[in-house]
Backbone:
């Protein structure tokens, strides 16, 4: 494989012919569990070389080289034999691996990954072809594989309807910007409570990689990097992503982070840094809402995650969170109470307004980046509007947002200044507001937003009159063109 697109195209073309694959989500899951076993096999080779007496949790028959690797001699399992082995031996064995509380995380994750994984393919020959494509990935030389989250996002782009299930993944440009400005340090505990494929955690690790490290600090980074993911195949890919980025014992939990009462968290459950993009647009049922205090209890998923962050951010800690516009201007009791708690208990120092198409093609919902720390109540909050870069009308899957597009914001971040909007008198591209101003405005955080087009609301009579005027104008144009055509036809006939 020479690049991501050819890898994905090969896998997609093969699975199209298999009667067992029904829909994009199944295609993605099928690819991911095979990718996980390929990556895990590579990690086991390293552990075996580096450690005396390393013992695999996998039985010999279930290791990659025993059933998946094709050495070209014609002896590799295929067809009905391969299908029977995967369905009758591999999956049952991995789901029932002997895991206890004393089992090392790097071994226990295999059973956790396969507890809810599925094998959908019904054609053993096609399954062999899929396995061969993935077996051909060279994890030493294939540099793009080290950004494995990009493979999942590329699959989502290729399989367009996969995004319809709410699989909206944060662009790397955004995660990198947020991770950089939250200022990571070795030894700090970081968390993402809805980590998806692990993109924020990867950006965090990239920042730490630029700092001086020893064998001890590498181990400490692994122990202090934490994620939770509710959905099965993003969880599988997050585990794989961490393995590829040097975290041998990933602390990624397959669970719903909202299903524990927030009042039960103690200092031991707190984190130095929290980076995340909470799922938004979704609604939680009453049995999830009951884990939150009455005044902070709502159905909006993003609101509940922000409350969770406020309870799990340690004193002195920092957070960077993606939230939709609806949170900023929302004035229902729950949103107002959450904003009061945020500005009372934390220092909300910066809000970055993002263009509407940052998350294209998944969603057009306009989002914002909130940066705050738990060092005391908010005194003032800076707002900065990031405009579309020159040459762009909007972002898309073929022209996604790049880290360089944040350059104006990076420059402003260090030397903050008020920036009037050159096109809208009285408006601002960047401005600072005191907590008193925000409170007197009803806790509305919808400040320094994008200019909106004013719409005139006409009465029914005015609407009818305007319609007649437009129709008369169009008829006049049509009549004029008909006259020209008739004149030309008359001249031709003569």
Residues:
């Amino acid at each position: 494989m020479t690049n991501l697109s050819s890898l994905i195209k090969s896998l997609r073309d093969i699975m199209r012919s298999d009667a067992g694959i029904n829909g994009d989500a199944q295609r993605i899951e099928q690819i991911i569990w095979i990718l996980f076993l390929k990556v895990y096999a590579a990690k086991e080779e390293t552990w075996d070389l580096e450690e005396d007496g390393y013992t695999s949790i996998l039985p010999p028959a279930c290791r990659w080289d025993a059933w998946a690797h094709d050495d070209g001699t014609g002896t590799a399992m295929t067809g009905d034999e391969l299908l029977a082995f995967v369905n009758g031996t591999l999956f049952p064995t991995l789901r029932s691996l002997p895991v206890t509380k004393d089992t090392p995380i790097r071994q226990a994750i295999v059973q956790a990954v396969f507890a809810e994984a599925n094998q959908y393919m019904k054609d053993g020959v096609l399954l062999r072809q899929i396995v061969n494509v993935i077996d051909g990935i060279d994890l030493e030389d294939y540099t793009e594989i080290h950004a494995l989250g990009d493979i999942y996002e590329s699959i989502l782009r290729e399989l367009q309807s996969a995004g319809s299930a709410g699989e909206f993944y944060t662009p790397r440009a955004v995660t990198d910007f947020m991770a950089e400005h939250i200022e990571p340090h070795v030894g700090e505990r970081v968390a993402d409570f809805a980590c998806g494929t692990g993109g924020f955690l990867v950006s965090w690790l990239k920042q730490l990689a630029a700092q001086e490290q020893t064998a001890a600090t590498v181990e400490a980074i692994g122990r202090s990097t934490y994620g939770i993911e509710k959905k099965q195949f993003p969880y599988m890919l997050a585990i794989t992503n961490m393995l590829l980025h040097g975290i041998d014992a990933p602390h990624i939990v397959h669970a719903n982070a909202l299903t524990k009462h927030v009042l039960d968290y103690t200092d031991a459950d707190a984190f130095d840094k929290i980076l995340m993009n909470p799922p938004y647009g979704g609604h939680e049922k009453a049995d999830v809402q009951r884990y939150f205090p009455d005044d902070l209890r709502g159905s909006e998923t993003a609101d509940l995650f922000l409350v969770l962050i406020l309870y799990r951010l340690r004193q002195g800690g920092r957070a960077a969170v993606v939230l939709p516009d609806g949170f900023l201007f929302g004035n229902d009791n729950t949103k107002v109470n959450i904003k009061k708690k945020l500005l009372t208990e934390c220092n909300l120092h910066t809000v970055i307004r993002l263009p509407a198409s940052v998350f294209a093609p998944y969603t057009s919902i306009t989002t914002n980046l909130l940066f705050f720390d738990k060092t005391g109540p908010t005194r003032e909050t800076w707002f900065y509007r990031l405009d579309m870069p020159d040459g762009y009308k909007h972002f898309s899957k073929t022209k996604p947002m790049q880290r360089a597009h944040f350059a104006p914001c990076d420059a402003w971040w260090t030397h903050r200044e008020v920036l009037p909007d050159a096109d809208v008198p009285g408006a601002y591209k960047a401005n600072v507001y005191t907590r008193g101003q925000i409170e007197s405005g009803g806790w509305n955080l919808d400040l320094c937003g994008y200019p909106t087009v004013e719409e005139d609301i006409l009465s029914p009579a005015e609407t009818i009159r305007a319609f007649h005027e437009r129709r008369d104008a169009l008829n006049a144009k049509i009549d004029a063109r008909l006259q020209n055509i008739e004149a030309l036809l008359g001249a031709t006939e003569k």
